[in-house]
Amino acid sequence: WLWAEHEGLATPAQMAQSVYDQIPAGDPFWSLRIGDPGVAQLFDGAVYIRGAMALQALRAEVGDQDFWRIIRTWAESRSGGTGTTPQLIALAERVSGHDLAPLFDAWLYTGAKPAAAGAATAASWAAGATFGTSATSAHGAAYARQWLAALQRQAGLAQRGR
To answer: Quick check: 22 and 156 in contact, CB under 8 A?
Structure first.
């Protein structure tokens, strides 16, 4: 999603909003608890896509400065090693100074479509998803929809090939 932003195709907020809007609450995509998916579903597409959405929700909640500080600190402290989800959550809370349990519970540990993840997140996503009515925002939203449609086609082909 960051590459799409770098290339001027869509922002991470547009990508997250597009996925959120296009996949209904009853879809199995939302039923997996991605914070602990188990061995059999560790590499499920929902883990990756919803994981990216969770990071975007974190970015919206704590702001860009704290978000990038969290990401840089995580990468530097884990270079060549591993880390756990609870360790990332603890780091995010320490850096931001916020209790992020409700956000992470909703995005990682609940087997249902999260609500718009709080007022700050919803406002940030809305701002990132629309940027008014410019052609750039329309292009970004269209790109995000096409990306998701291609991903869904791939998943359908993979399921049929099993």
So the answer is: no
